[in-house]
Amino acid sequence: MTDTIIRDDAELAARLAEVAGRIAVEVRDSGLIEGKPLGSAGDNTANAFLMRAIAAQRPDDGVLSEESRDTMERLGKDRVWIIDPVDGTREYGERRTDWAVHVGLAIKGEPVIGAVALPGVPTVLRTDQVTELPPAPERLRMVVSRTRPGKDSEAVAEAIGAELVPMGSAGAKAMAIIRGEADIYLHSGGQYEWDNCAPAAVALAHGLHASRIDGSPLRYNREDVSLPDLLICRKEHADRVLNLVSELA
Q1: Are 152 and 242 in contact (CB under 8 A)?
Q2: Contact 39, 93 (CB under 8 A)
Q3: C-alpha distances in Å from residue 113, one per residue of 12, 42, 152, 167, 178
Q4: Which residues lie below 8 Å from residue 242, measured CB to CB, with a gap of 6+?
Q5: Is the pTM of this model over 0.85?
Q6: Rounded CA separation 115/135 (Å)
Q7: Cα(210)–Cα(159) distance, integer angstroms
Q8: How distant, in Å, are the alpha carbons of 4, 15, 66 from that of 1?
Q9: What is the pLDDT along the chain (249 residues), one digit of tens a residue?
Q10: What CA–CA distance (Å, rounded) separates 81 from 211?
């Protein structure tokens, strides 16, 4: 970051995510911390940068971070940055590519601006730089947790004949659709606002469907920060998936 005031929110989100990702990589590649403490060190170091940078660049905005104590002050703000410094700490520690940094900006509860950095690739997907989606294959692909695939996801995948694609972080899963690596991300196992605000913003900007699994819109900056379920997919597949989820319930 420089001392120059950044006036564009999308550019700021992208720079924050990219720099925080580089910081986390530097912590990991130092070789000075291993195992579970490495995940905490990467999270905390990247979070310290993000919190200070947002305070410097957008002092009047609210912030909600997975790694900082929440305060109710943000509830009185129309603009709230919602961040996850390292999404997928296990993957981060294992030097995999399927972890992410989330920087989202909710305006009046809607996921308007966002950037998702994939430092292991490396790339940053953002709301202001929209790329054309690759065509969907004949057999659809559904991203699922590589360690604990959800029963709803497996049931829907079986019903539509989709291939299961195990993957790490929520951000990596959502961005896999934009990157042409998958077509559907269905999650019902519990998440929080920081898990999906930035990915949802980026997905919506790219013309994807993003909602709760009952079809209701995703809303942010609430007192209860749990946001337990999510569907991100191509719009042409949304109704079919939502109807199957309702039938299976």
Answers
A1: no
A2: yes
A3: 10, 24, 29, 24, 16
A4: 211, 213, 214, 215, 231
A5: yes
A6: 23
A7: 21
A8: 8, 8, 22
A9: 444 555 799 999 999 999 999 999 999 999 999 988 999 999 999 999 999 999 999 999 999 999 999 989 999 999 999 999 999 999 999 999 999 999 999 999 999 999 999 999 999 999 999 999 988 899 999 999 887 777 788 899 999 999 999 999 999 999 999 999 999 999 998 899 999 999 999 999 999 999 999 999 999 999 999 999 999 999 999 999 999 999 987
A10: 19
Lookup: tokens for 70: 């929440």
Q: Tens digits of per-residue pLDDT, 163-199?
A: 999 999 999 999 999 999 999 999 998 899 999 999 9
Residue 56: CA count within 13 A, CB half-sphere: 14
Residue showing tokens 């920081």: 194
Contact status, residue 26 vs residue 48, Cβ threshold 8 Å: no
Question: Checking phi first, is residue 21 left (phi over 0); if not, alpha (psi -120 to 50) or beta?
Answer: alpha
Which residue from 111, 119, 103 is spatially nearest to 14, judged by alpha carbons?
103
